[in-house]
Design goal:
- There is one protein chain.
- The chain has one domain (2-246, 267-290): Clam (outer membrane lipoprotein receptor (LolB), chain A).
- 28% of the residues lie in helices and 33% in strands.
- The chain has helices at residues 2-6, 84-94, 98-106, 171-180, 184-193, 200-217, 268-293, and strands at 10-23, 26-41, 45-52, 60-65, 70-74, 77-81, 122-132, 135-143, 148-154, 160-167, 220-233.
- The chain has an eleven-stranded antiparallel sheet with strand order 6-5-4-3-2-1-11-10-9-8-7, with helices on one face.
- The longest helix is centred in the last third of the chain and has 26 residues, at 268-293.
Length: 313
C-alpha cells in the first residue's frame, strides 16, 4: 500500500468520520459524525479540512501549506509551525487523526515518531474481505499504540478505503508503559516549550499528570472510523488550491516564531509518544538559531600560485 501512495503525484479525498465514545462498563455511546477533505501533492503541498455536525471543541479546522509555511486553524486561531510534521501532528489531534492517517502514507512519514501510525502496528492479521460503498476491499486488523486498528484496502487500486481505531480499558497500561520510557530530558523539553520552570518537582508532576490522563481515558471506550468516499489521484493542481477556507475575519498570520502546540489530555498515548520527538525538534531549532545568529566572515578570494608552464587564466 505504501508503494502505491509513493507513486502518486497528488491525491484528493473527500469522506466522513464517525466518532463513538462510551464507557468500558457499557451503556449508550455518543456518536459524532464529521466530513473531511484532503488535497495532497508533491513535494510539500497540502490542505486538510474537517467539520463536525455537533457544536464541539473540534467543530471545524484545517491544516495547510502552499509551500510558504505550515499552518493549523483551530477555532478562530491560526498558528504557524516550522515544518509539516508538527503541523500534521497538531492537526491530527484536533481532527481525531484525519490530518494524519492518509497524509502520513502519502508523504512517507511512516517512520516519524509522531505521525507514523503504520510503524506502531503489531500482530497484523487478515480478516474476511468486505465491500465498502462500491469497492471490494481486503481487511487487515492489528494492534496499534493505543488500541485496535482495522484497515480496509481497495482491491482495485490498493489504496486505503476505510480506517478504524478503537481504544478501551487496556489503554491505561499502554500509556503507563509509554510514559515509563520517557527520560527526564524529554520532560524538561516539554516544560521549556510550555514556558514553565524546570524543576525536579515539575518533572515529577508532569509525569504523574501523563499517567493520570491515561487512567481517566481508560474509563472510556472510543472508536474513530474514517471512510474515504471519493478518491481522485494524479490530477493537475494549482498552488491556490491549497489555501484553506478561513472563517470571516480570520487571516493567515505573517511568518513568526511558532507557539508550542497544545495536545490536551484526551490523547495521552499520543502525548507520551511525542515527548522524545519534541526534544529532537527543539534541539534542531536551537542549533539553527545559533548558526544564523553567528556573524559570517566575509569570503576572500586567495590567488593560488601558478605552476611553471601552467597557462595564465
Amino acid at each position: 500500500m505504501e508503494d502505491k501512495y509513493a507513486a502518486l503525484s497528488s491525491i484528493s479525498v473527500t469522506g466522513k468520520q464517525v466518532s463513538e465514545i462510551g464507557s468500558v462498563t457499557g451503556g449508550v455511546a455518543s456518536s459524532v459524525e464529521s466530513t473531511f477533505s484532503l488535497n495532497l501533492a508533491r513535494p510539500d503541498f497540502y490542505r486538510i479540512e474537517w467539520r463536525e455536525a455537533a457544536q464541539t471543541a473540534y467543530n471545524a479546522g484545517a491544516v495547510w501549506s502552499t509551500g510558504a509555511g505550515h499552518f493549523v486553524l483551530s477555532g478562530r486561531k491560526v498558528t504557524q509551525y516550522p515544518e509539516r510534521g508538527l503541523a500534521l501532528g497538531v492537526g491530527g489531534v484536533h481532527s481525531r487523526d484525519v490530518a494524519k492517517t492518509v497524509p502520513t502514507i502519502f508523504f512517507h512519514d511512516t517512520m516519524d515518531k509522531m505521525l507514523g501510525w503504520l510503524t506502531h502496528l503489531k500482530n497484523p492479521a487478515r480478516q474476511p474481505d468486505e465491500r465498502i460503498d462500491t469497492e471490494d476491499c481486503y481487511v487487515v486488523a492489528a494492534d496499534g499504540l493505543a488500541g485496535k486498528t482495522v484497515v480496509w484496502i481497495t482491491k482495485r487500486n490498493f489504496l486505503m478505503k476505510q480506517f478504524r481505531t478503537t481504544t478501551g480499558g487496556d489503554l491505561q497500561a499502554k500509556v503507563s508503559q509509554a510514559v515509563s520510557v520517557i527520560g527526564d530530558e524529554s520532560l524538561k523539553a516539554i516544560l521549556e516549550r510550555s514556558g514553565k520552570a524546570v524543576t525536579s518537582e515539575a518533572i515529577r508532576k508532569l509525569r504523574a499528570e501523563m499517567e493520570e490522563s491515561g487512567r481517566v481515558a481508560a474509563q472510556s471506550r472510543t472508536s474513530f472510523t474514517q471512510t474515504c468516499q471519493s478518491i481522485v489521484v494524479n490530477k493537475a493542481v494549482k498552488t491556490e488550491e491549497f489555501e484553506a477556507t478561513l472563517p470571516p475575519g480570520v487571516a493567515t498570520p505573517p511568518a513568526k516564531q511558532p507557539e508550542p502546540p497544545h495536545f490536551g489530555i484526551e490523547r495521552p498515548a499520543a502525548l507520551a509518544s511525542l515527548a522524545a520527538h519534541f526534544q529532537k525538534r527543539i534541539k534542531h531549532l536551537h542549533h539553527e538559531h545559533l548558526r544564523e545568529s553567528l556573524p559570517q566572515a566575509p569570503q576572500r578570494h586567495v590567488a593560488r600560485p601558478r605552476r611553471q608552464g601552467q597557462p595564465r587564466r
